[in-house]
Design goal:
Helix 4 runs antiparallel to helix 16 and helix 9 runs parallel beside helix 19. The chain is 66% helix and 4% strand. A three-stranded mixed β-sheet has the order 1-5-6, with no helix packed on it. Strands 2-7 form a two-stranded antiparallel ribbon. It is globular. It is built from 22 helices and seven strands. The chain has one domain. The longest helix has 35 residues. With 600 residues, the chain is mainly alpha-helical. It starts with a strand and ends in a 9-residue tail after the last helix. A hairpin with a 2-residue loop joins strand 3 and strand 4.
Length: 600
């Protein structure tokens, strides 16, 4: 029987500050290799994971088998459900490209108006948010920057506008994966199930970012054309920002994170399009030499079919989410469909300490479809015939010594990735009926695998870093040091989130590395962990525009490779301003209007 592991938070010189500095080596190695050495992200993630593993084992005293269990659990969680959602989302996007639907939508946007200011709103803000909601991972900046450049915008300005527009939607990007990931990591820390924690985080982020969503359209037009020319198109600016903010707040609070960006972007796009039917700017701010004057005119039926593809995605995921809200994902699994994983009775020679099954202590029947939930091997011991977590958190992180469970749930039917894959297959049926070759399905899937083979490795190892740091106590060591910032912590919380995305290029990665740290620090400081963890995600989006990875994507999209420094110099000020505002908003919510924070 394995002995319990009691976390210690000051293993270095019995000093929490020194211990926190040592604990920060793992994310620091990741950051230096990404931003300074400029190695491939998957290599940096492996180096960071190795650093965290060694520190947990040799410095924090985590037993080697338990350290291995935490590392492999993080990798498994990175593969399911995180990478599964990403894979399905990017597959859907690639399928829309192969079928021609994506180009039809792009051309329909170009035909709506020749006014440069409104093109910024439609392409950079609305359409960029739609791509972020479905694909994410750099696609919105690359696509919208190249579209703006194709419409005649100066290349560097096109990249700048695309980068700044790609802020408000990022926290709910790629079917809400940043919030979903954060919810999965925080649930065991806060003592709630993953779905409840994720919904609370989604609601909190959805009460912060809409304020910025309303401002970003005006911000973009002022940056491009000046204050006076922005006022001249204020109906379009107000429509784009307000409808997106309303959609973002409503969906994130009452449906969940998965469809927040997609529905909000579609609402914003449709609203601006309808507005343009009845209103046009009084002044002319168009370039008659742009490609929009000669763009191909698709039949209205073809345009409708293209948008219907995204409608199928929305309806499919919505139906799945309604089912989850109704409790279908929490139904007791059906009887075994296979005896392959059956362990038999507790204590037999084949499975002396059963770990497979929804409740290994009383139901060791093995694999159950579609739900498989179990205590992670190597992370628990049997106490009085029941599984008990080996890791024990200690004061002052928790009031008294308590178990820190490490479980894994594979819920195939309720997973967002499964819903998106199903939507992709449904959307392909009408594509076939209207002449799309069956081979497009294989081409899109092959392209998706090629695009994501290394990012999936990166995701797995970054989740490994976070899990090892959380369960060894390294995260808590850093949290205890950060708690010494006192009442200013909410302000610094925003900056920590921004720095995380600046270094990693991903709000998901920043939430993985610093979300649990923010929540732990909040609990120690007497603040709401949901607020601080959500602030990590909401403020993190402000670092997206200055991350080296995104700068490279933006430069490549407009044919300005080698001019990343020029783009950086034009967006850094905006990143700092927006992060400062988010920090002030976090302080306001923490101390003045705490009732705005959703309760678990």
């Amino acid at each position: 029987m394995a002995e319990l592991f009691h976390q210690t938070y000051s293993p270095v010189g019995n000093n929490v500050l020194f211990s926190a500095l040592v604990a920060s080596l793992a994310p620091l190695v990741l950051a230096v290799m990404l931003a300074v050495v400029r190695v491939a992200p998957w290599r940096a993630a492996i180096a960071g994971a190795a650093t965290a593993f060694l520190l947990a084992w040799l410095v924090w005293g985590m037993p080697l088998p338990l350290t291995f269990a935490a590392a492999t659990h993080g990798m498994a969680y990175g593969l399911w459900p995180i990478s599964w959602i990403v894979l399905s989302s990017v597959f859907f996007y690639n399928l829309s490209v192969e079928s021609g639907d994506f180009d039809v939508i792009r051309r329909s946007l170009e035909r709506l108006t020749r006014d440069r200011r409104i093109q910024v709103l439609l392409v950079a803000f609305c359409f960029g948010a739609l791509i972020e909601g479905i694909a994410g991972f750099g696609a919105p900046v690359a696509i919208t920057a190249s579209m703006l450049a194709g419409l005649g915008f100066e290349p560097i300005m096109a990249a700048v506008l695309a980068l700044i527009a790609n802020t408000a939607p990022v926290a709910f990007g790629s079917l809400g994966i940043p919030v979903t990931t954060l919810g999965g990591l925080l649930a065991p820390m806060l003592g709630h199930d993953t779905q409840t924690t994720t919904r609370a985080l989604s609601a909190m982020v959805g009460r912060q970012l809409p304020l910025f969503s309303m401002a970003i359209p005006a911000y973009l037009v002022v940056l491009y054309a000046g204050w006076g020319r922005m006022i001249a198109v204020w109906p379009a600016v107000l429509t784009a920002g307000l409808t997106f903010a309303i959609g973002q707040f409503t969906v994130s609070n009452f449906v969940g994170p998965e469809l927040t960006d997609t529905l909000a972007a579609l609402l914003s796009l449709a609203s601006v399009a309808v507005l343009l039917k009845f209103w046009q700017p009084s002044d002319d701010y168009a370039d008659t030499a742009t490609a929009s004057t000669n763009v191909i005119r698709d039949p209205s039926g073809r345009v409708l079919r293209a948008y219907a593809t995204y409608g199928i995605l929305v309806i499919t995921v919505l139906v799945g989410q309604v089912g989850n809200l109704a409790g279908l994902s929490n139904m007791k699994p059906p009887a075994n469909v296979t005896a392959l994983f059956r362990c038999g009775q507790i204590g037999n020679k084949l499975c002396p300490e059963p770990w497979i099954g929804e409740n290994a202590s009383v139901d060791p029947q093995g694999f159950r479809f579609p739900v498989w939930e179990f205590s992670w091997p190597g992370a628990y011991t049997m106490v009085d015939g029941k599984p008990s977590a080996i890791v024990q958190r200690e004061a002052p992180v928790v009031p008294a010594s308590s178990a820190y469970p490490l479980t894994f749930r594979l819920d195939f039917m309720a997973a967002a990735g499964t819903l998106v894959l199903f939507a992709s297959l449904l959307a392909f049926v009408p594509m076939l009926m209207f002449g799309v070759n069956l081979s497009a399905l294989g081409v899109a899937f092959g392209k998706t695998l090629k695009q994501l083979r290394l990012p999936i490795v990166t995701i797995a190892f970054i989740l490994s870093i976070a899990t090892v740091m959380n369960y060894s106590g390294m995260t808590s060591s850093m949290a205890l040091a950060l708690a010494k910032t006192g009442w200013l912590f909410p302000f610094f919380s925003a900056w920590l989130g921004m720095i995380g995305v600046f270094l990693t290029g991903s709000d998901t990665s920043s939430n993985t590395l610093f979300g649990p740290l923010q929540a732990t620090t909040a609990k120690i400081s007497g603040l709401d962990p949901i607020l601080m963890a959500a602030t990590n995600s909401s403020a993190g989006v402000m670092g997206k525009m200055i991350s080296p990875q995104n700068l490279s994507v933006g430069a490549a999209g407009v044919g300005a490779v080698g001019r990343e420094g020029e783009i950086f110099s034009r967006v850094i000020v905006h990143s700092l301003i927006l992060t400062t505002l988010m920090g002030l908003l976090a302080m306001l919510m923490a101390y003045v209007i705490p009732w705005v924070v959703p309760s678990l």
